[in-house]
Design brief:
The chain is mostly helical. The protein has helices at residues 5-24, 28-31, 42-57, 67-76, 82-100, 105-109, 120-141, 150-165, 194-201; strands spanning 171-173, 181-183, 188-190. Strands 2-1-3 form a 3-stranded mixed sheet, with helices on one face. A hairpin with a 7-residue loop joins strand 1 (171-173) and strand 2. It is globular, with a radius of gyration of 17 Å.
Length: 220
């Protein structure tokens, strides 16, 4: 169940702008802070987020999101400052907005290029999720509170899609403030905190937090 194009495109663009604002003011100490993404400092997380969008707008889509692609994105930006990555992010975000402006419904519902298992719309939603969650990685590394804005809703939808492709469920994700999201044909309702569920489902926190029905990890 993908969110509509009218929600996902502006949501992604706003999330990218917010990510730029998040990293722009960081100093060297914050930039080098370790994150919960194994082996990555804050600057590495930023390099991946910026690199992902840069890859999309340049048409470098094969393997996007794979460990090899993410490692390349980080390596290509190693040593760059927050100001430099903020500047690159602003440029590629503008290109992404121009690209998205030509999408119609048929394009949105067509298979995603680059080997992603889903539609183009689901691929764009995955970029929104990735930006939101990595912003949360940065905030967690710096001891800042999480954001519970529209990106969390997109992340629940993305995780539901990934769980469905892995045959998890059927279930219904029923979190406060977010419409119910079916996994498979829908089934037993999973309630609780939406962000905690996303963190568990992406291997970022203890799966025991979900009780006896865990573990769940879309990357396992």
């Amino acid at each position: 169940m993908t969110l509509p194009r009218s929600v996902v495109i502006p949501g992604l663009l706003a999330e990218l702008e917010a990510f730029g604002e998040l990293i722009a003011a960081l100093d060297g100490s914050a930039w080098g802070s370790p994150t919960r993404c194994q082996g990555w400092a804050v600057g590495d997380v930023a390099g991946h987020v910026v690199g992902s969008i840069a890859d999309v707008v340049s048409g470098q889509l094969e393997g996007l999101g794979s460990p090899e692609a993410t490692a390349r994105e980080v390596a290509e930006r190693k040593g760059r400052s927050p100001a430099e990555l903020t500047q690159e992010l602003a440029a590629v975000t503008k290109l992404a907005a121009d690209l998205a402006a030509v999408f119609d419904d048929d394009t949105w519902d067509a298979p995603s290029p680059g080997g992603y298992n889903g539609t183009l719309g689901q691929g764009v939603e995955a970029l929104w999720y990735d930006t939101y969650l990595h912003a949360d990685d940065v905030r967690a590394a710096l001891g800042r509170p999480s954001s519970r804005g529209p990106g969390l809703r997109a992340s629940v939808h993305h995780v539901a899609h990934e769980l469905d492709t892995r045959g998890w469920g059927p279930a219904t994700l029923a979190f406060e403030g977010i419409e119910e999201v079916p996994v498979g044909a829908g089934g037993t309702k999973r309630t609780g905190d939406a962000l905690e569920f996303v963190l568990v489902a992406t291997g970022r926190t203890d799966p025991g937090a979900l009780g006896p029905d865990g573990p769940i990890n879309i990357y396992a």
